[in-house]
Amino acid sequence: MPGQTPLTGRTALVTGSGAGIGRAVLERFAREGARVIVADRDAAAAEEVAAGVGASARYVIVDISDETSVRAAFENLGAEGWAPDVVVANAGVQLFGEDDRVADLDLEVWRRTIETNFTGTFLTLKYAVRTMRDRSGGSIIVVGSPTAITGEGADFTAYSASKAGIHGLVRTVAAGYAADGIRVNTVVPAYTETALVTTISDDPTAHSAIVGRIPLGRAGTPRDVEGVMVLLASDDGAFATGASFAVDGGMSTL
Ligand SMILES: NC(=O)c1ccc[n+]([C@@H]2O[C@H](COP(=O)([O-])OP(=O)(O)OC[C@H]3O[C@@H](n4cnc5c(N)ncnc54)[C@H](O)[C@@H]3O)[C@@H](O)[C@H]2O)c1
Questions:
Q1: How close is the Cα of 131 to the center of ligand 1, in Å?
Q2: What domains, with CATH codes, occur in the chain?
Q3: Residues in the chain, pLDDT under 70
């Protein structure tokens, strides 16, 4: 229809959209015509982002590592007529201890990383699929990482393992629910200067080293992944499932 934007009529939930990459994607989805749901454990940030978007947005406070919290969020949204047909499983953490190479990796750093990035993504997929299975399908997009593919950097032991698990999860869930019209894909951003990576971006040596491993020669920005997210959320991505889309300046592929 003339004047329609790609996400007109869609309802999109983005976890971790109180900040960083998730926030940029959520705001872009809103500009492309979607109703949007900010899902974050940071209540103040979630409220502020939703208010900035306006009447086509709402927010839910959710901790993706807590099943009760994730279940309640999806069930309440469904009951209130806001069941999402697009879900971006984006929320994640990057935690460091004294020495994160495997021989000295603190078990607590490992557990907290896996609980949020891996178990949290599993729980998001679990309730997103339940919601979409009861409707006419939907699109789920999971945010991966080059570290899962390249073994990037000795300090990323827990983080890379958590993200590698996600890549496997996506392929399995995509195969399991294709017949229900549910598509599941991974988007892999490059190193992107957000609050997540201040340990690296505040250290000029570490920052230069990581940018040096990006063939296109710069850090990513949240804006870099917005376009592929819109494609996968919309009918233009209707034949894509179980796939991984790297938008990482060549970091994981060259
Ligand atoms: N920044 C990078 O360099 C980079 C590169 C590749 C992939 N990623 C991935 O992109 C995603 C977003 O990262 P970012 O850089 O925008 O991070 P960020 O720290 O800027 O934002 C993360 C958001 O997630 C929320 N969050 C964290 N744990 C949560 C939980 N348990 N439940 C609900 N919300 C939670 C935070 O409150 C925050 O609003 C993450 O999955 C990250 O691993 C980031």
A1: 23
A2: 11-194+222-247 (3.40.50.720)
A3: 1-3, 151-153
